[in-house]
Amino acid sequence: MAKSKNHTAHNQSFKAHKNGIKKPKRHRQTSTKGMDPKFLRNLRYSRKGNKKSGEAAAAAAMVVVRVRVLGTELNSD
């Protein structure tokens, strides 16, 4: 008795390309599950630092706005 065929990839590539091979969709926030713990720890600290600098920048911007508003009021008198 002849041996039976074990495997073939015939026509599979054609079928896959019929509707197009698409890249997986990228989500807005990728999962950090399984990532390097050292990297995640550093990521947490860096995000905290960015938040602090953002708050300082916002406060500085408010000071600039107040100075401009007061300056225009003083100049108009």
Automatic annotation (TrEMBL):
Residues 1-42 are annotated as: Disordered. Keywords: Ribonucleoprotein, Ribosomal protein. The keyword Transcription regulation does not apply. GO terms for cellular component: ribonucleoprotein complex; ribosome. Pfam families: Ribosomal_L29e. GO terms for biological process: translation. Belongs to the eukaryotic ribosomal protein eL29 family. PANTHER family: 60S RIBOSOMAL PROTEIN L29. This is 60S ribosomal protein L29. It comes from Zea mays (Maize).
